[in-house]
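job 3f2a | input accepted
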Amino acid sequence: MTGALGIIHRAKQDGLIEKVKPLIDRLLATNFRISEKIIKEILTLNNENASH
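job 3f2a | predicted structure (52 res):
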């Protein structure tokens, strides 16, 4: 089973999206809840950080 962040991560790895951060920001603008720790891990896995 893969969640929303897993799908976003896979899309980045497959070259379908350029950055994961904008999509995470859009999710967080809704009622989507995820811990800061997991967000940081996903950003790190994708060579991004919170300032991107």
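job 3f2a | Helices lie at 4-13, 21-28, 36-45.
job 3f2a | closed
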